[in-house]
Amino acid sequence: MVLWLALVWQIPNQQVNRPASVMGRVVWQGDKPQVPWFRAPASPGVNQGDPGLKSWQNPFAPTILSDGSMANVLIWVEEGQAEPRPKLKVEVQDNQIRLEQGGRTVPVGLLGLGDSITVESRQDTLFTLKARGASSFALPLIEKAKNVTRKLEKPGWVELSSGSGQYWARAWLWVGAPQKALFTDKNGSFEINGLKPGKVKIFARLPDWQLSKFERDQETGEILMAQYQKPRIQVVETDLEPGGRAKVDISFGAGQP
Question: How high is the pLDDT of residue 7?
Answer without folding.
Answer: 46
